[in-house]
Amino acid sequence: MVPGAEILIKCLEREGVEVIFGYPGGAALDIFDALQESSQIRNVLVRHEQGAAHAASGYARAKGTVGVCLATSGPGATNLVTGIATAYMDSIPIVAITGQVPTGMVGTDAFQEVDITGITDPITKHNYLVKDVRDIPRIVKEAFYIASSGRPGPVLIDIPKNISASKAEYQEYGELELRGYKPNLTGHNGQVKQVSRLIQKAKHPLICAGGGVISAGAAEELFELAEKSQIPVANTLMGLGSFPLDHPLALGVLGTYGLASANFAVHSCDVLIALGMRFDDRVTSSTEKFAPNARIIHIDIDAAEVGKNVRVDYPLVGDLKIVLNQINERVKEMQHPEWLEEIRQIKNKYPKRINRPESEVINTGEVMEYLNEYLPGNSIVTTDVGQHQMWAAQQLIFKNPRSFISSGGLGTMGYGIPAAVGAQVACPAATVVAITGDGSFQMGMSELGTALEQDLPLKILILNNQCLGMVKQLQDHYCEGRHVAVHFQKNPDFQHLARAYGALTLRVADRTELAQKVREFAEHPGLAVLEVIISSKDNVYPMVLTGSGINEMVGLG
Amino acid sequence: MRHTLAVLVENQPGVLSHVSGLFSRRGYNIESLVVSETEDHTVSRITLVVEGDEQVIEQVTKQLNKQVEVIKVNDITNEEIVERQLLLLKVSADPADRQEIMQIVDIFRCRIVDIGRRSLVVEATGDEKKIQAIIKSLRPFGIQELVCTGSVAMLRGQK
For the whole model, what pTM was predicted? Predict the structure, then answer.
């Protein structure tokens, strides 16, 4: 007979867990006690539970396996909530484990009690309150299976203190029986035929690749389809990295802050092949004006996404890796010289870098250009949320899946640094760069402590414009330029702050020093913080205003 | 349009709140909801009456199917079904009115299940239309209290 906590750890080991991002507390005492005994699993002690959830998400996204976070009951659990919601919106597989007050006290408003299964019901794929220690093996096995299969997502397991303390025989759980959960993997044959025929006939086809391509591990299959059929590829924010952006067929990111080439291509295409994306409003802007000339093929593992936001002419539900293989078997080689020429012309007309060498102030385009130059090929970039995120998405040249980690759906400021912690733990050999702003940095900077303690050589780039630039930009456009609560009157000295965490600190305000500083930053073997002073007047362009079609951009320049 | 959905779910605590939470957060309207055990004690059946156009009902069905505990969703609106609600209605009944009320009760084949000094409690089962007709007929006498279940429904057997 062993305590429930030990059974839990054994089950996690069986699932192949190597790292937990956790923060202890009263109701989780037994779990941490048992965790210490594990030779397979190490705990990365974070500085705030939200950081634990984001780190688990960054870990999952960098590594392609389930990320695990652990917190105590009450505030520990509620601090996970934003991280769980972030993972839910971006379909990231994480398992969140929380302590809970003993079953006898559940419902009594006990100290540090909160109904976390109730709270996370809308933001988890599934969740469990464990009521019997003997259920732990089944629940853990189900949780990992549900989190990682089908459309991935977070699963939460809430374990009351008396359950983790009470003893039972450890017995491995056999075959799962989830009669209500059977993801569709193979595409319907008739639909595959139809879709393949339509792709073959298209004159102006366009692929729109989302995060699903990455989570399905289908980047190679996408590459094959695009090359063989000579179909240009646009990416959603979540899909960046699924197709190499230095490829002639690559159009880059589309949407409300998308590149002109991608947005115009969506407007002119006659067949839109949407892969593993969900037509988020930041992708489509006005849905009535989205891809008006196109018949839309939507391939996704989640049937509920098909037809949810836009009308879909050809739905196809299944795992993208399998379905794209089915399609690749049928589609023959093609050429679309006129269409590709049209796209080339748009690309030439609207180059993505807005360079202003006459200005004294450093332009963010230059910063991104130097990052493209000096970051090694195995780099992973995480971002926070705001203008810096969009600049990174527009201008960095991502070539590999899992190389861009950003909060797309929920738009969570404070994500970048803890996600970078997770990514670096997952990929110790990679150069992990967190691109952030002076606003977002201050939401996630507590995890610098984790980076310090774990000796993580993170590279943190702060684009400092002394304001909350994206909100300011919205106020420019929607509040007639009235700036409210966006300009920081006083910011801390980021150099001092970073130095306190043992980081190499670099600051650049002068364009002539930029290249050298970015290089020094990229090549530094340890934790480094580079602060680049940029103008508070800069905005992200092109931009699509609310109600417009994505071809109706402002600031095309 | 109104749709009747028969939803088979795992008979576990929390399932009902998952299902009803799904409706409220996605903005779907539940007209009525009945949950009960079935012939299989591990399975519960939720009969839902939902108002919405085809697109809404399609989303409702898909979102329900996504729930791990939902085993099967059947839209039985256009099927041959037997549908029943149960009504209990306390109607004011002065001695002068009793005869007339009892006639109405007879016509609709309902039952009087309690007699008070100034009231009668009427029990009725039937589909939505019949229940509404009964309520309408008894309203002039003064309804003191009314309670009605949602619909339960079942496919008719093969002929």
Answer: 0.95
CA distance A108 to chain B (A): 18
B42 lies in the same domain as B68: yes
pLDDT in tens, chain A (557 residues): 999 999 999 999 999 999 999 999 999 999 999 999 999 999 999 999 999 999 999 999 999 999 999 999 999 999 999 999 999 999 999 999 999 999 999 999 999 999 999 999 999 999 999 999 999 999 999 999 999 999 999 999 999 999 999 999 999 999 999 999 999 899 999 999 999 999 999 999 999 999 999 999 999 999 999 999 999 999 999 999 999 999 999 999 999 999 999 999 999 999 999 999 999 999 999 999 999 999 999 999 999 999 999 999 999 999 999 999 999 999 999 999 999 999 999 999 988 766 566 677 898 999 999 999 999 999 999 999 999 999 999 999 999 999 999 999 999 999 999 999 999 999 999 999 999 999 999 999 999 999 999 999 999 999 999 999 999 999 999 999 999 999 999 999 999 999 999 999 999 999 999 999 999 999 999 999 999 999 998 899 999 999 999 999 998 86
User: Is A225 within 8 Å of A231 (Cβ atoms)?
Assistant: yes
Q: B interface mutation test: which of A181, A184, A300 has the most B CBs within 10 A?
A: A181
Query: What is the dihedral sign for C-alpha A389, A393, A395, A398?
Result: positive
**Catalytic residue flag (residue A111):** yes
Pick the residue from chain B with its C-alpha nearest to A147: B68
Q: Which domain holds residue B46?
A: 2-75
Among A89, A470, A543, A553, which one carries the catalytic annotation? A470
CATH superfamily of A2-168: Thiamin diphosphate (ThDP)-binding fold, Pyr/PP domains (3.40.50.970)
- Asked whether the ipTM of the predicted complex exceeds the cut of 0.85, the reply is yes
A364-547, which class in CATH?
Answer: alpha beta
The set of long-range contacts for A76-81, using a CB threshold of 8 Å and a minimum separation of 24, is A76/A23, A76/A25, A76/A27, A76/A28, A76/A49, A76/A112, A77/A49, A77/A114, A77/A116, A77/A119, A77/A158, A78/A114, A78/A116, A78/A119, A79/A48, A79/A49, A79/A50, A80/A49, A80/A50, A80/A52, A80/A53, A81/A119, A81/A120, A81/A123
Nearest CA in chain B to A126: B68
CA distance A41 to A9: 8
Q: Minimal Cα–Cα distance from A308 to chain B, Å? A: 7
Contacts B63 to A, Cβ<8 Å: 304
Q: How close is the nearest chain B Cα to the Cα of A52, in Å?
A: 26
Are the Cβ atoms of B9 and A308 closer than 8 angstroms?
A: no
The single residue of A49, A221, A369, A531 carrying the catalytic annotation is A49
Q: Which of B9, B21, B62 sits opposite A122 (nearest CB)?
A: B21
Q: Pick from B33, B56, B75: which residue ends a domain?
A: B75
Closest-CA residue of chain B to A178: B68
Q: Mutating which of A106, A121, A123 best tests the B interface, going by the most B Cβ atoms within 10 A? A: A121
- Taking alpha carbons only, the member of A180, A86, A267, A311 closest to residue B43 is A180
